[in-house]
Amino acid sequence: MIADKMVGLVNNNSAIRMMFEEGKRLAAIHGAENVYDFSLGNPNVPAPASLNKAIKEILDEEESTFVHGYMSNAGYEDVRETVAQSLNRRFGTSFTQNNIIMTVGAAGGLNSALKAIVNPGDEIVTFAPYFLEYRAYVSNFDGVLVEVSPDTATFQPNIEEFEKKITPKTKAVIINNPNNPTGVVYSEETVKKLVAVMEAKQKEYGTEIYLISDEPYRELAYDGVDVPYLTKYYANTIVGYSFSKSLSLPGERIGYLVIPSEMPDYKNVFAAASIATRVLGFVNAPSLMQRAVARVIDEQTDIAYYNRNRELLYNSLTEYGFQCVKPEGAFYLFVKSPVADEKEFVNKAKEYNILMVPGSSFACPGYVRIAYCVAYETIERSLESFKDLAKNYDLI
Predict the structure, then answer these.
(1) For residues 329 and 184, is the Cβ–Cβ distance under 8 A?
(2) 225 plus 315 within the same structural domain
(3) CA-CA-CA-CA torsion for 220, 223, 229, 230, nearest 10 degrees?
(4) How far apart are CA 125 and CA 132, in angstroms?
(5) Confidence band, pLDDT 50/70/90 cuts, at residue 281
(6) Per-residue pLDDT reduced to its tens digit, 219-246
């Protein structure tokens, strides 16, 4: 008999993964070129050639037992220092290796951070729509996820409701910026309002409330939009980052946590998160990938590729009568369903070989997520099907 916690997870397996499997089934029937799978945020841009070169050079130049061996749970010291100095150049921070923990992707980092700070019954606040795995991550440590309902006009956080939902039990707030699934970037104005509430509540309750910023899409921001670096606004910030999107390495599971020295209990939090990496079973982040990303730390993301996809798909869908807030970052459109039950809409779209994820998977029913990190040609081929789908709902 499986664990009680796992029963629900098995029964409610990720809609994203289920849709991905449905795409493979439809491709076998209709041909892959005739199925338009927008379900999974799997980058279509290849990893940089410089990264492949770096991996080969590391294997040729660095001693094998060092490259493939154990190191500090926090990661190689020189890699952590390289990450710290890159952040300092970009954001005017003053980090050192002692503020960086290399992690098994952003997911491993978030679980390590939560393991470090959460006691059973602690409340973790997040803003809908949010990445569906947050609930599972919080449940891993017997915390309670508290949702703030979405502002569907802008998809910026609902600050008024947020203030009401912070209690003496609140241990952390998770934000995802740029946001998955909406592609919205939380502005500096929003960030300042957010941290003002948190600082006031810390003072009122005499507690520490951590701000956990989940940032795998940080480099994917368009039209010159700035993504605020949150350690500059709030001392109790933990930043989780992944190279999955910026370097197209989702399967390599490599990222890091930033824990700033300004945090009041910095030394204990850093030590706890480092040990959490071990006791959760990761031990340390993948050694070869640590050394590889350090060699290409300043590699630029091909924003133009994703922006071209964004413009074509957003402009076409809105022309066809669909409603969507234009995304400023990441590689998702969050489109309003033309019927109240977005799952019905998702099922109808499958009849046109279009695969999308229902918004209820992100705690925001009535919408669907479309991942445009696919080949440009896939979007081009899909447009007639989207147009026919729109006609089905009398949008055009």
Answers:
(1) yes
(2) no
(3) -100
(4) 14
(5) very high
(6) 999 999 999 999 999 999 999 999 999 9
Last residue of one domain, picked from the residues 244, 279, 295 = 295
pLDDT tens, 98-121?
A: 999 999 999 999 999 999 999 999
Could you please report the per-residue DSSP string of 66-101? HHTS---TT--HHHHHHHHHHHHHHH-----GGGEE
Q: Please name the amino acid found at residue 82.
A: T
Average pLDDT over residues 183-201: 98
Q: Is the dihedral of CA 18, 19, 22, 23 positive or negative?
A: negative
- Reading the block at residue 346, the tokens are 């998702």
Domain shared by 388 and 284, yes or no: no
Distance from C-alpha of 339 to C-alpha of 335, rounded to nearest angstrom: 12
Do residues 43 and 250 lie in contact, with contact meaning Cβ atoms separated by under 8 Å?
yes
Q: Are residues 312 and 283 in the same domain?
A: no
Q: Strand 357-358 and strand 36-37: pairing?
A: unpaired
Give me the phi and psi of 170, to 5 degrees please.
Answer: -70, 120
Q: What is residue 145's three-state secondary structure?
A: strand
Which residue shows structure tokens 């491993």? 108
- Using an 8 Å Cβ cutoff, are 246 and 301 in contact? yes
Name every residue whose Cβ is closer than 8 Å to that of residue 237 and which is 6 or more positions away in sequence: 210, 211, 212, 213, 230, 231, 258, 260, 263
Instruction: Give CA–CA dist 212/313, Å, rounded.
Output: 31
Q: Among all chains, which residue has been given the structure tokens 């009122």?
A: 204
> Is pLDDT at 32 greater than 80 in this prediction?
no
The count of structural domains within the chain is: 2
